[in-house]
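TA notes, week 10

Several of you asked for a full example with nothing omitted. So below is the full record: structure tokens for the whole chain, then the designed sequence directly under it. When grading your own attempts, check the secondary structure regions first.
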């Protein structure tokens, strides 16, 4: 399988950014449309083998592709140096390490 040209990957990255911004805009009025935007961005990333940065990965649920907004579609907890995000739609759990601030 040949590698995609650089210009195609650049266009794919731009489209992923556009789709995530559209998902953020449409989430309040139509959450299902926001999930469709995220699913399309995920398909583009897979097709063109483009990595989605952490700023995008943290914004959606990998299981149901819903847009994760803390307090609305997800719950966020801090526990022993781990940020735990739970999707309210499907119950999927994401765990990400973080460095807690030192208490004096």
């Amino acid at each position: 399988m040949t590698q995609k040209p650089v210009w195609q990957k650049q266009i794919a990255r731009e489209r992923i950014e556009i789709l995530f911004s559209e998902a953020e805009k449409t989430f309040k009025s139509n959450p299902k449309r926001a999930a469709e935007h995220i699913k399309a961005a995920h398909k583009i990333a897979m097709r063109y083998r483009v990595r989605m940065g952490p700023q995008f990965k943290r914004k959606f649920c990998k299981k149901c592709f819903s847009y994760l907004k803390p307090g609305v579609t997800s719950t966020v907890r801090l526990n022993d140096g781990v940020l735990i995000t739970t999707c309210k739609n499907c119950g999927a759990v994401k765990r990400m390490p973080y460095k807690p601030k030192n208490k004096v």
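Residues 79 and 99 are 11 Å apart (CA to CA). Use that as a sanity check on your answer.
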